[in-house]
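Meet my pick.
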Amino acid sequence: MPRRRWLRHRGCVVRASRSLLCVRGMCALDGVLVPDRESALSRRSESALTTSAEARACSCSVSRERSHKVDVWLSRLLPRSAQWSPLHSIRAFRRFDRPCGARSRDLSPPSDDRAARERRARRRRRARRRTRLRRNACDGRTRRRSRPCRRLGRDIRIGEAAAPPGPDAAPAPAPVDTFDRNAHSLDDPMSIWVVVNRDRPLNPEDFVPPDLVEVPVAHTWVPEMRQEASDAVVAMFQAAADEAGYFLASNSAYRSYSTQVDLYGDGDDPTTAPPGRSEHQTGLGIDIGTERGCTFECMEDSEEGQWLRDNAYRFGFILRYPADKVDVTGYPHEAWHYRYIGVDLATKMHETGYTTLEEFFGLPAAPMP
């Protein structure tokens, strides 16, 4: 391969191969300027110059300068030892700086006519589209053409799915749990997260919620609950009627310590909590039935019961005693008993698959005696 030298001037980049370089009729032979092209040609055979790249470069430069009358000047002749690649030389010049062996329309000065502007706009659109296709291929999207993509260290082709990570690939970072499990107390009876079971009594055991209100819903006995829980019950019952045409009713809500003493009796009923250990005493628990008379066990197979199991979390309620968690909660399955814990916690338990407060908060189980 002959040595290549480059001459930079205002109009284009001209390559000099071997020892001859011509621009606008001025030629350099072996690094020495000669007055005209004819003098240079006299020192070399016409046939060799005509068939070489130097002749095409000279013709290109001369015809270009004559047709467009561009003021071309020779800045300097690079030393013979300089080795500039065509890519670097082209990048060093913008817009109209091209090797003189390029097509004549690329060497033309900017044109103001409409056709030229449209051609340039089409070229820019095609370039943007090619860039967009390459970027989409790196993201694994399907495209028609097949072209290598080396973005972000991946080597895939357009139209091909990205290869799955190998066995040595670094595992994806585990999602960070940002839910604050300490937002409310689990022991304070005034907390909506208070956990009450056979092993976790209320303190004090004869606790009475100070914000009890009557719940304005259909009922068997007049229900009372804490204000926040009462508002949630009203919203849930209304949603059941509006969304599914189900009309729910309250069978039991707040029960005082003395009432629980009477109900518990000698403790032979496993579904009745001991006094001071009942969720009804917190003002956050409610037994739900329907206006058509479906109560207690009937809720297990009814459409209303299914709707509650699917949607109660939206209003801050959970089914407190699931059928498969008897050894955790300490009570048999009660399809009618729902406990208010707030929308945030109920939604989190629904998303993570927890069905009991004991498991979600890592508390000891309270099995049946």
